Amino acid sequence: MRHLLHMASYSSQTNMHARNLAIVWAPNLLRSKDIEATGFNGTAAFMEVRVQSIVVEFILTHVEQLFRDAPLHGTSWPGNGGGR
Predict the structure, then answer these.
(1) Among 3, 7, 56, 61, which one is most buried in terms of CB atoms within 10 A?
(2) Region class of 29: left (phi > 0), else alpha (psi between -120 and 50), else beta
(3) What CA–CA distance (Å, rounded) separates 28 from 70?
(4) Nearest to 28 by CA among 4, 44, 5
(5) What's the pLDDT at 65?
(6) What are phi and psi of 7, to 5 degrees?
(7) What is the DSSP code string of 19-83?
């Protein structure tokens, strides 16, 4: 998520602000096996992706509050074996 937030910091040049990044990445980050299993298409699939993108946009706009204590990749924390 921090990487996507970093990408959003270039939105003035790329126009990929949090909302656009959420639209692109939500189906991959919040993949729904229910949609795949039932074969949703059309309006139902669109509504599901819309909900997913809203959730991802919220996460992106609140990364620091949500992941404040989460270690960055490659750093040591109890339970991860000391890093990479």
Answers:
(1) 56
(2) alpha
(3) 22
(4) 4
(5) 85
(6) -65, -40
(7) HHHHHHHHHHHT--HHHHHHT--THHHHHHHHHHHHHHHHHHHTHHHHHTTSPPTT---TTTTS-
Q: Is the pLDDT of residue 74 over 80?
A: no
* Alpha-carbon torsion, ordered 41, 47, 48, 53, to 10 deg: 130
Say if residues 63 and 5 touch (Cβ distance below 8 Å).
Answer: yes
Helix axes 43-61, 18-29, angle to 10 degrees: 120
Q: Rounded to an integer, what distance in angstroms lies between the CA atom of residue 30 and that of residue 46?
A: 14
